[in-house]
Amino acid sequence: FTIEALMQNGWALQSGTSHFLGQNFAKAFDVTFSDDANQQQHVWATSWGVSTRLVGALIMSHSDDSGLVLPPAVAPTQAVVVPISPGPDKQPEQHAELMAFVDAQVASMRAAGVRVSIDTRWNVRPGPKFFEYERKGVPLRIEAGPRDMAAGKLVVARRTGGDKFDLPAGEGVGGAIAAELDAMQGALLAAAEARLSDGTRETDSYAEMADALAAAEGAGSGGAGLFLVPWFDDAAAEKSIKDETKATIRCFPLGEQHRAEGRVCFYSGKPATHMALFGRAF
């Protein structure tokens, strides 16, 4: 079994696999167990491959030309507060008042379960800080300066784009930030699901797939998404398709196999044995 994902450039990525290994490895390395009759038997093994490839899939699925975009659920820091202050040495009274304000907002966020940090590097100007957190993919950047404190608000920027917006400061700010993170998580998932849906087309024509892949390559992307096709299982034919188009079978989607009945293979014209997803892949 496999988990197959579709990246933003139209290429597929195998994101996780499981394999039934039988007893071959057990016999090679003499891995045994005692059965209910107290007899030694070689184990039946499986392999579950979910590893750092998923990290690459996450980065390629959501990020943009400005840097990393992390879904809030997996972001180590979900929000960062950047106090707009010259630091404790230049205006100590105003700075102390501002930091007390910031600390109260951060306490509310932490009480709501938000993973939040405060940037207290007073020797670094706000602009470079903003650029750094954009590159690092922190979901929410929160600005708080003396004017914001006086107005009883925070200024928030989403890593996913859009205009900055104000949030009222106070006890409810933690819940409001948590709601923003939930909304961002949902929007990123919806965008990825739409990309997969929009990027998967069904065809009975090999020529249609080959032409689409050639056009995508000519446009510079190299990928044209996934193609759901009726398929007669034939290793030699699959190799020919790979040689001609660079596309391979990514998987036989479990929920589509019943639709192969009564159809003919899009490549050979033989009775279809499966519904297959073809595509170019990393």
Spell the H/E element sequence: EEHEEEHEHEHEHEEHEHEHEE
| Alpha carbon gyration radius | 27 Å
Strands of the widest sheet, in order across it, are 7-6-8-9-10
Shape: elongated
Alpha-carbon distance between the two ends: 18 Å
Main sheet record = 5 strands, mixed
Question: Which percent bin holds the helix content?
Answer: 25-40%
Brief write-up:
By secondary structure, the chain is an alpha+beta fold.
Strand and helix map with partners:
Layout: E1 2-6, E2 12-22, H1 24-29, E3 32-34, E4 40-42, E5 45-49, H2 53-62, E6 79-83, H3 92-111, E7 116-118, H4 126-136, E8 140-144, H5 146-151, E9 153-158, E10 165-168, H6 173-198, E11 200-202, H7 206-219, E12 226-231, H8 235-245, E13 248-251, E14 274-279
Parallel strand pairs: 6-7, 6-8, 11-12
Antiparallel strand pairs: 1-2, 2-5, 3-4, 8-9, 9-10, 12-14, 13-14
